[in-house]
Structure formats: structure tokens, C-alpha cells
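step 3/5: co-fold with flavin-adenine dinucleotide
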Amino acid sequence: MNYDVVVVGGGPVGCAVARDIAAAGYRVLVLEEHQEIGAPVQCAGLISKRALEISRVPSTTVLNRLNGAVVYAPGEKILRLEGKKVYALVIDRRAFDCSLAEQARLTGAEILCGLRAVKFAYVPEGIMVEARGREGKNCFFSCRLLVGADGHNSAVARWLGMHQPLEKVFLYATEVRLSEGNGHLAHIFLDRCLAPGWFGWIFPAGNNRARVGIGSSPLVVKNKRESPRLLFNQLINRYPLLFRGMKVLQNTSGVISIGLLRQTYAAHVLLVGDAAAHTKPVSGGGLYFGLRAGKHCAGTAIKALKIQNLTPDFLSAYQKEWEAAIGQEISTGLKHREVFLEMKNEEIGRLVSFLNKPIWQKLILKYGDLDYHSWLAARLAFVPPWASHFLTAGLRKLSQEK
Ligand SMILES: Cc1cc2nc3c(=O)[nH]c(=O)nc-3n(C[C@H](O)[C@H](O)[C@H](O)COP(=O)(O)OP(=O)(O)OC[C@H]3O[C@@H](n4cnc5c(N)ncnc54)[C@H](O)[C@@H]3O)c2cc1C
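step 4/5: write C-alpha cells
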């Protein structure tokens, strides 16, 4: 065998897993299809302090700290939430990924860029990976364990027939320069027409820069005019004052897989990160859940390599561990998402104006957490029935199910 472990995908989660397995003394190879780590950026770069902590990436990658949000809802309803604590960090995502890759290299992992894993086959002692370079030259690598950290369109998951996320959300995201107003509040736009099944956002990134984007879900999109690229233009036109003097510096489209995959392991294989839909169903954020699951992925891998047991039976411990860590939050998030997908514009407007009172603002600021949306939802579930039929019906049901 060439390697103990081949990790397909040099994204943040793949590099973090490679780092931890290599640190235990195993020979680890990371294959990344792009020419460099961290590019192109397909992320708004919003994470919590705890996500930064578990990544072990230095805080020099933090560009801005956000202490609240302004929520824009249909009918000109606005909810302003501004607290004293830091709720979210806006990071330099490219530097973040590069730091994780550097950490992996320092523990001894090898990273090869410009190689796309295209075929996999079981061989007597593990798995043979075929990878294609830019010039069409193919290379072969064998390993005892294959880690699929290859994102939402995972080739490893497709090879195993394991990829069945419930939903794929399509996003269009940009980095822009704004002529003014670079504060510490996120701006979130909720509107069934503007962002069908998802939301729009502005995350100020300091230095008069901001991340602006929007998404839509095929579950609710009815026609082509609702492609995220076109929705982005509608967002800009709808709020001209917020986007005055805007210049788009970079743009990208992207996909987020949402769901709870019940099997993310097979003989000699583990799936992790976006490849395993380790994302938050409400916001689509995947860095924290991916890194959390990555810890369990590396832990199970190290034990399995040590006792040379790479059977599905042994590797299923990984599934149990990551589900214990984030599975409940994902399933609660999926139920919240179901409620959100059913909401009409009038209901979103009513909910936002209802919450726009000091008592609810205080509650949201106290329990709001970027990684654990259920903490706040559990509190909001007890609003009086007259307040919002939708909120109470949906969230009460959730709290009873918990
Ligand atoms: C527009 C957008 C905005 C987002 N904003 C946020 C945010 O603000 N906060 C947050 O937490 N999350 C956000 N996310 C989600 C976040 O980007 C992902 O959850 C995170 O990148 C997952 O990391 P990963 O390592 O699992 O996968 P990825 O980052 O997707 O990395 C997978 C890597 O595998 C490589 N690869 C794929 N196939 C192959 C192959 N066959 N061979 C070799 N290499 C391969 C890819 O090139 C890629 O580098 C956003 C996503 C999008 C699309």
C-alpha cells in the first residue's frame, strides 16, 4: 500500500482530518483537484468563535466581528438585533483553508493539488484511487482507508451510491466594495419572492468590504427567473440605499447539501464534511459541523488503522459518534426548515414584526447562537398562541417532539 489514508478533497474538513490522522503517525495523502488550496472561494466566511477554536486557525484570519443582525421581511418589516457579545466572525476563507492545509503538512500529511480523483476500486488490502491531472495524465494511489471530504458533489459518495441529501440549495455569493457603512451587523433578507426557500445576506467584512449573496431552493423555485444570479440583481435593486456605490470584486455560485445521511461509512471508507451533508439546515453553514464531524472521523480512522479493522461494522462507530455530536441539531434544523419552507410572505412579515419588541429581542440576543439554532427555537416555542399562529404551531410541535 502507498498510503494508510487517502483523503479526497483539500477543503478545510479534509485538511483537518488529514492533520489529525497524520499526527498519529500514519501516512496520509490529500488529493485536491484545484491548483491551489483555498481557491476559488465559495463561502461567505461567517463562523462562530467556537468554530475558529476547533479549527486551530489563528485569529489573524478574522476580518470582522459581528454583534447582531438586521432582518428585513416582506411588508417593510424590520427587526434590529444588536447585542454586546460577538455572535459571529467574518473570516478570510482562503487564509483559513491555507492554514488548515499548513497544519496538515506540518504533521506530515502530503498534499497534492491539481489532481482530481476520478475512479475508485476495492483491492485486496484496501482501495485503489485513480486521479487525473491537468494534462490528462493519470496517477494511481492505494490506501487502507479512503476519506471522502470532496464536498457536496462527492465522487466518493457517488461511487458508493451513498449520497442522498434531502435537498440542495443553490447560492450566488459575492465579495463587494461598498462606499460606506461597514458596521458590525449582518443583514438578512427574508422574502419568498426575493429568495425562494432561502435568504439573502450582507456580512460586513471590514475595510468597506462585504460578502453579499442569496440562495434559492429547487423545492420552491418555480421558474428560471429565480436563478440565484438573477435573484442577486433583484436584491440589489430592492434595497438601493444599502448597496449604494457597490462594486463586485469577486463572485461565485455554490451548492449546499442539506439532510441527515444515515450511512457515511463503508468498508475502508468514511465520508465527512459537505460530502456527508454536515451542514446546518437553517443557515447552510458547514464549517463548524464539518470540523466537529472531522474530529470523530479522524478518531475512528486512527483506531481502525491501529487494530487493522476497516470493516463497515467497526467504522460504523464514526456514524454513531458524529450523530451524537451534531445529529440532533441537524434533525431539529430540518424540522425548522420544513416550517420555514411552508411560510408565506405575510407570515414571515407578521413574525418579524411580532418579534420586534424588547422582550423578544432580549431573548433572541440571549439565546441566539450561530451553531445551535435549536437553543433559541426552544425558547421561542412558548410565545402565546395569538402572537403568530405559524410560529406557535410549528415551533410548539418541534418542542414537543424533542
Ligand atoms: C456560497 C456559499 C457560502 C457559504 N457560506 C458559509 C458560511 O458563511 N459559513 C459556513 O460555515 N459555511 C458556509 N458555506 C458552506 C461551507 O463552505 C462548506 O460547508 C465547507 O466548505 C465544507 O468544507 P468541506 O471541506 O467539507 O468541503 P469543501 O470546502 O467543498 O471542499 C471540498 C474540496 O474537495 C475538492 N474536490 C471535490 N471533488 C474532488 C475530487 N474528485 N478529487 C479531488 N478533489 C476534489 C474540491 O475542490 C474542494 O476543495 C457556504 C457555502 C457556499 C456554497
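step 5/5: annotate
The longest strand covers residues 247-258.
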